[in-house]
Write a structure and sequence with these properties.
Length: 227
């Protein structure tokens, strides 16, 4: 009654379309450039980026799963999936370099990354409470609960806002290090750039969907206040 109205289908389809398009784009781009071989593996490119920036002490792990690559600031480690760690493809090159870009951010005390790391536990906590509080507030006609729920949901939107420049900057640092090394051709660099651009769009999509969800909650809350 309160959540499912005449606009629900429109919002649901729009959010689903944005999410699926982002996933489709990164998967198709990754598959395309995973077939194009280059001079180094994802592990090699990550090490190159670290070396170019004089960053030491970063641990490496081989992770399981598809596109499970990530940097963990808690122990200063880079985890690369098997198709990135060992493969000498453009896709592996780009992903490995990007994750090393995060390690460079940490070494250089890049503030947005430090802020995102601090927001992680707060965002996880607020995400668990946000929707239940909004729902309880709507069915019990308690505007305060709805307001608190929306405020908590806004934290996840803030997290996505902070995440976008963190990811963009990591890619920028990675591509700059690869270019300055002089070890890659212009075609290899352009391919890596396209892989990272496709990956960046997934974060843009996540931000857009979170903003749309927040706007919908605000619209529902305002509509119920007028009843």
């Amino acid at each position: 009654m309160f959540i499912y109205d005449e606009y629900y289908i429109f919002y649901a389809i729009l959010i689903l379309a944005i999410t699926l398009f982002a996933q489709f784009r990164i998967q198709m781009t990754f598959r395309k450039y995973s077939k194009i071989k280059c001079k180094m593996t994802g592990f090699d490119s990550a090490n190159l980026v670290l070396k170019q920036n004089d960053v030491n002490g970063v641990k490496f792990y081989k992770s399981q799963g598809y596109l499970s690559d990530h940097f963990d600031p808690r122990d200063n480690s880079i985890s690369l999936s098997g198709m990135v760690y060992d493969e000498n493809s453009i896709s592996a090159l780009g992903v490995g370099a990007h994750e090393a870009g995060h390690a460079v951010q940490m070494a250089k005390n890049y503030f947005p990354m430090e802020l995102r790391h601090k927001l992680v536990p707060i965002t996880n906590f607020s995400s668990m409470l946000a929707m239940p509080l909004v729902f309880l507030g709507l069915i019990s006609v308690q505007d305060l609960l709805v307001t608190i729920g929306i405020a908590l949901f806004s934290i996840s939107v803030l997290f996505h806002i902070v995440t976008l420049p963190v990811e963009s900057n990591a890619s920028k640092r990675a591509l700059l290090a690869l270019e300055e090394s002089g070890k890659l051709s212009s075609e290899e660099l352009e391919g890596a750039r396209k892989v990272l651009m496709a990956a960046r769009f997934t974060y843009i999509a996540a931000l857009l969907t979170s903003i749309l969800s927040l706007l919908r909650l605000i619209m529902i809350a305002n509509r119920n206040k007028r009843r």
